[in-house]
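Researcher: I'd like a candidate sequence for this fold, 441 residues long. If you have to choose between options at a position, lean toward the conservative one.
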């Protein structure tokens, strides 16, 4: 799920490569050290982002320390960041309440009974794709499916990171194709094309990527074995809160309303049916909210760091450098892809990245006669590609928080975003008739 940026977002001062150094600090501390010591938990993501935040404040020039902290705090207090915090709080409370009353276990048992073992991974991916396409929000899809995916991983002894990654990958399928996705709306509006035209352009790239990812999950899941279910009856009342969440999400209700309804359902059913006491429900909610603490801290720190990167000219530098070397239509398309990818790295929000570089992409597409549906498709697919693999994106943090694993454990199995990247690059590189230079009129 993504939102439009605040109208009062601070504009960059001037292009600056140095402004991007906080991201380098984060990646060096978090990714490089973790890979070097072969321990994905070696460096807590909160510590890595704290170091990046301190560095971002220190390198900001022309402001007093108090003003730098104010700029950082304005990024933390961004309404999109705060919206995500409320979603995390409600998601934590619902997930723990549902688990304590037995909703997750009952749903897992129902799933295992309905689906054949060797198609379990593929079925989870298909379900994630379908829900994300229906609701148009990747975060909402992860909220709905990640708890069940974790339960399935425990029941089948499959990798929790892999099962969670399947949900995350499928969740971005909807961002690519759904007519009600924020990324679709932003891409089509900035490029001036109809949604159906962008959908047709996207299908040629997204559908093959989804089929290839599905094939990978079929092969990986061919030897998955679930425990014997016996003849135990399905506990439908325990499944009800979860079914309510899925149905209301598919109905297009806002994710916060969906989570609130689900949370109330766990209380009414759990207390009413005697699955737990009223105070136990309160304790479960509190434990779930507390369990999201690291996720909330990282989200707040990321908001502040990215605000300073924007203010110091990091995004302006990327735009200037990439657009200065365009030679032909193919190069123009790769430039649009690079622009939105780099902007997404700096904003950790695919919709904001599209809005940031959309006008520049429109100028490039007009100059090199790129159809609007094509530029909108490039903006959408490459922003979702980057959003799907960065460890500090809202979707990855949400999934990692629910699964209680490092984001790096999930990234290892993110086949769909990576295959989407290969298909998107191939669609530009192999398309005929795109090497001619644009003739000036």
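Model: Candidate sequence:
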């Amino acid at each position: 799920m993504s939102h439009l940026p605040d109208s009062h977002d601070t504009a960059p001062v001037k292009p600056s490569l140095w402004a991007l150094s906080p991201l380098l600090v984060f990646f060096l501390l978090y990714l490089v050290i973790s890979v070097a010591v072969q321990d994905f938990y070696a460096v807590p993501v909160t510590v890595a982002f704290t170091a990046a935040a301190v560095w971002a404040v220190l390198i900001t020039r022309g402001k007093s320390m108090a003003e730098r902290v104010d700029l950082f705090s304005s990024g933390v207090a961004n309404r999109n960041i705060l919206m995500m915090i409320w979603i995390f709080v409600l998601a934590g409370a619902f997930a723990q309440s549902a688990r304590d009353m037995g909703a997750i276990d009952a749903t897992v048992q129902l799933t295992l009974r309905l689906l054949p073992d060797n198609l379990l991974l593929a079925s989870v991916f298909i379900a994630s794709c379908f829900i994300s396409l229906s609701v148009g929000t990747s975060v909402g899809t992860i909220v709905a499916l990640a708890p069940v995916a974790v339960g399935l991983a425990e029941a089948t002894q499959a990798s929790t990171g892999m099962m969670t990654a399947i949900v995350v990958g499928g969740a971005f399928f909807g961002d690519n194709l759904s007519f009600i996705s924020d990324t679709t709306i932003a891409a089509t509006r900035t490029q001036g094309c109809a949604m159906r035209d962008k959908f047709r352009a996207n299908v040629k790239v997204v559908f093959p990527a989804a089929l290839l990812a599905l094939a990978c999950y079929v092969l990986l899941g061919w030897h998955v074995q679930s425990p014997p279910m016996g003849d135990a009856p399905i506990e439908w009342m325990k499944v009800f809160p979860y079914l309510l969440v899925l149905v209301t999400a598919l109905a297009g209700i806002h994710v916060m309303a969906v989570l609130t309804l689900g949370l109330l359902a766990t209380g009414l059913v759990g207390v009413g049916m005697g699955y737990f006491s009223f105070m136990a429900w309160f304790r479960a909610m509190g434990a779930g909210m507390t369990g999201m603490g690291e996720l909330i801290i990282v989200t707040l720190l990321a908001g502040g760091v990215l605000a300073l990167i924007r203010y110091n000219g990091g995004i302006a530098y990327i735009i200037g450098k990439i657009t200065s070397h365009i030679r032909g239509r193919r190069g123009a398309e790769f430039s649009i892809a690079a622009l939105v990818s780099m902007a997404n790295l700096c904003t950790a929000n695919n919709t904001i990245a599209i809005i940031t570089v959309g006008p520049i992409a429109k100028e490039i597409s007009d100059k090199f006669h790129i159809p609007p549906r094509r530029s909108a498709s490039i903006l959408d697919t490459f922003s979702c590609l980057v959003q799907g693999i960065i460890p500090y994106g809202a979707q990855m943090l949400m999934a990692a928080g629910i699964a209680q694993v490092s984001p790096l454990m999930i990234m290892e199995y993110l086949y769909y975003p990576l295959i989407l990247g290969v298909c998107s690059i191939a669609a530009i590189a192999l398309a005929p008739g795109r090497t001619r230079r644009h003739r000036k009129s």
